[in-house]
């Protein structure tokens, strides 16, 4: 490897890791938003994945190839429990139930001290998530979503986003698609959480709260949801931005919040407004 | 012991109900889950704190002025964020997302300007005397909270059912276009509803800040979990439901903490919320129709 590349990787390793993981999180947000649903539980699912992964590695010493799928399954199970009833109701119910999930989990992590380390969190998690793994998964997911987006399923998803009732009348199985998307997005967020835990070596209860949920939403809103690439671009911009704007560090969350407001009001298609092309 | 627990539950539940009133009112009328509501709560508490510290204001002055300030903030925030979306009939989810982004920005701005240290009301702001009868202790602040919660529910109920403004608000809640065609000034009614909900949020902020005596910018966020639970259990937009659900939640939490474990207390609200969604999504007193597709 060229020397400058080595230097570059060494200096920015944390940032590069974070970019990949945030890309995965942005895709997990895309997965529900592409159907016109709003889940604010991505941070909670990520936290579940992170805690599951970290505990399996630290307490049971399971191998990493086994830890990763399990840390995707646990959030999927929780998504089934809270998604089941809410998806039959109007969209706000899912949003409320998922925000509430994040809040309750945070308190539980803090209170279940013997297992989760309480407010101090868990540290000393071995660094097993290599850059290759993170970016390999990211590329795989983008390609997967791209293929799905161009298929019949993608058409159904876009139809639901534009007009749910019309899509239902056309024979799209609404509850199945909604639940499927929520579970897939929970799995993806859990996977990202587990990867984050195994690359930072530390996790704490306050990392998966309201701010993180809003930040993940802002990735997808800034990038747009026309193509699977768009939310990832949003994630890259919003993750790299604080590095560029160091002096504004205290106001980082203010800026994230404002980006959401401005994006919803004035830029409903995001900064990458293209749509997937399909064969006629 | 049980009776003291029940009284504590009633007080805690009244704080939850107080917090949820304005929240559920906004949804019931404007069809927006307005997450900036938690910010009005913090604003009310901070304005009252500032008045008490700088001018030695008593609770009888600080409470109304704090609520008033929160009401005005609510009108401005609602006008800036939601007018445009209301014009284009953008629906529930974009409105929810806008308020979500805004509340993060507002909290963070407040935290950056004021700091996140916990602040307290000056000593003796409210007398620390406690009444005691039949072995049950109730402090002055606690009575104030329960009293205010019930009075506000009654006033709100009368306002909605027996005044001209109430009629306009109910018409707007029913159908905006029809209300406009009937000659109702929809924009003014929207402002009135925002103001009312901010007022309620601010009052809740002052009283709850006083009860826990811990005021900091994110205090509204901490109440949100209970707020969500209460408005879902009581039924979205249902004012009586919010009162009953709030008290129910408070009593259950206190009993859980007393007889099971204090850790389990935190999960009570969320558990009932999920159960409500599974078995009775319309809430305690809700009518059958929920889905407005």
Automatic annotation (TrEMBL), chain A:
Q: By its UniProt entry, which Pfam families does this protein fall under?
A: BPD_transp_2
- Topological category with respect to the lipid bilayer: Multi-pass membrane protein
**Record keywords:** Cell membrane, Membrane, Transmembrane, Transmembrane helix
Q: What is its main location?
A: membrane
The entry's localization annotation reads: Cell membrane
Q: Which residues cross the membrane?
A: 15-33, 40-58, 64-84, 91-109, 129-148, 169-196, 216-241, 253-272
GO cellular component assignments:
plasma membrane
Matching entries from InterPro entries are given as: ABC_transp_permease, LivM-like
Q: Which molecular function terms from Gene Ontology are attached?
A: branched-chain amino acid transmembrane transporter activity
Protein name (database record): Branched-chain amino acid ABC transporter permease
Q: Which organism is it from?
A: Azospirillum doebereinerae
Automatic annotation (TrEMBL), chain B:
Annotated membrane topology is: Multi-pass membrane protein
Under the heading CDD domains, the entry gives: TM_PBP1_LivH_like
The cellular component terms of Gene Ontology attached to this UniProt record, alphabetical and capped at eight, are:
plasma membrane
List the GO biological process terms: D-alanine transmembrane transport; L-alanine transport; L-isoleucine import across plasma membrane
Q: Which Pfam families match?
A: BPD_transp_2
Give the molecular function GO annotations: L-isoleucine transmembrane transporter activity; L-leucine transmembrane transporter activity; L-phenylalanine transmembrane transporter activity; L-valine transmembrane transporter activity
Q: What is this protein called?
A: Branched-chain amino acid ABC transporter permease
The regions listed as transmembrane in this protein's record are 6-30, 37-53, 59-81, 93-114, 134-160, 190-212, 267-286
Q: Which UniProt keywords apply?
A: Amino-acid transport, Cell inner membrane, Cell membrane, Membrane, Transmembrane, Transmembrane helix, Transport
Q: What is the species of this protein?
A: Azospirillum doebereinerae
List the residue ranges forming a coiled coil, or say none: none
Query: Is Membrane given among the entry's keywords?
Result: yes
